[in-house]
């Protein structure tokens, strides 16, 4: 990733990288195509009513021009995608492959271990600040997210928190599923990614991706239907 995520464990844990060579590629997450189209979801987020008190940067040094927007049912932002490899070390995500690697995530899985960025699709939200606090909008660890890139829709969960002034980051597994280069050192997408977080949703355990897809489909259908009814 190009910015270091905020984590709850000590950074020294990052030294626990695997000793085996990164030859084997992690098993890909099994995705099924969303029955709700990218066009239907994007139609519902075409207009922005800001819910953040200020705007975010894509990366350090870039302009602060990205608001967090909201509707009755979702919050969303349109940004780039940096690659988050933090969490449980693996062949593709470790201290050797990612210069900012940290072996922890803001939200652990049900057995107390960090999430696996290689295997679990999740996104990174900015740490709470006066600019915006995601917790005030029915969002927390395990909240369901639709990530839209070009004509693809993939479902993920909120799994990590990053710097207070930066937005636009998701796990290695999320990038792979969207066809985005998942290299934590120079991969990602420069623009064109829409993150739609469904309020008051929660997957438990957080690592149950099949449950995230099921709940994501349900929430996306409700949102798309409601958007059409409202004329958005």
TrEMBL record:
Q: Which UniProt keywords apply?
A: Carbohydrate metabolism, Glycosidase, Hydrolase, Polysaccharide degradation, Secreted, Signal
- UniProt GO molecular function: hydrolase activity
Pfam families the UniProt entry points to = Glyco_hydro_75
Return the PANTHER family for the record: ENDO-CHITOSANASE
Q: Does the keyword Secreted apply?
A: yes
Query: Is Secreted a UniProt keyword of this protein?
Result: yes
Q: What is this protein called?
A: Glycoside hydrolase family 75 protein
Which coarse location class applies to the principal site listed for this UniProt protein? secreted
Superkingdom classification of source: Bacteria
According to the UniProt entry, the coiled-coil residues are: none
Its localization reads: Secreted
So which residues are the signal peptide here? 1-23
